[in-house]
Design brief:
single chain, six-stranded mixed beta sheet, three-stranded antiparallel beta sheet
Length: 191
């Protein structure tokens, strides 16, 4: 499966949206990747998770950890495709936490799996939530990496699709200046 195929799947299942969006990061964009549209179809998710698993073959890890909500389903499928344990972190009182009795061993190699990465704020919050366990982050994986390579020195990201859609701070957003109504399809509140 090539990058064009993943993009085409997003188009086919109405997961590639155009308009004026407030991203989870707080940035504004004319493009939004709604991977949840793919999650309606388990065979599609299994296919892309299996493809990502192939790209992860050189990375040694024991456990997949995903941030809620967007990464949970895809993280589970990547864990299934790699035959690894699967956990997730979730927000409580505004911060990511490993809950539900989940425990990680000191030195455990963890792969963090998300659906879409722009600024990686959620990834860094996930890493912070795992710090008390003294784990090792083996890598980060996602369906769509829209960070435009800006995170290469901080994260080892493996993705199925790398894109560089334009994103603006709210103050610089030309769509706001034109008075175009904004939509916030993500799950994080605030900003």
């Amino acid at each position: 499966m090539s990058q064009v195929d993943v993009k085409q799947l997003l188009i086919d299942f109405d997961g590639l949206l155009n308009g004026h969006f407030c991203l989870t990061s707080g940035l504004h964009s004319d493009t939004y990747f709604q991977c949840a549209k793919l999650y309606q179809y388990p065979p599609v998710v299994k296919t892309i998770a299996t493809e990502l698993a192939k790209k992860l073959e050189g990375i040694e890890f024991e456990t997949v950890v995903s941030p809620a909500i967007g990464g949970i389903i895809f993280g589970y499928e990547v864990a299934a495709a790699t035959d690894k344990r699967n956990l997730f972190v979730e927000r409580k009182d505004g911060e990511m936490q490993l809950r539900r009795g989940y425990v990680l061993k000191k030195g455990e190699r963890v792969l963090i799996v998300e659906d879409v990465i722009t600024t990686a704020r959620t990834i860094f919050e996930t890493i912070e939530a795992l710090k008390p366990f003294e784990i090792e982050v083996a890598g980060v994986a996602c369906i769509v990496d829209r960070s435009a390579g800006k995170l290469k020195d901080k994260l080892n990201i493996t993705s199925l699709l790398q894109v560089n859609p334009v994103a603006y701070t709210p103050e610089e957003c030309p769509l706001c200046k034109l008075g175009i109504e904004i939509t916030k399809p993500g799950s994080r509140t605030g900003k």
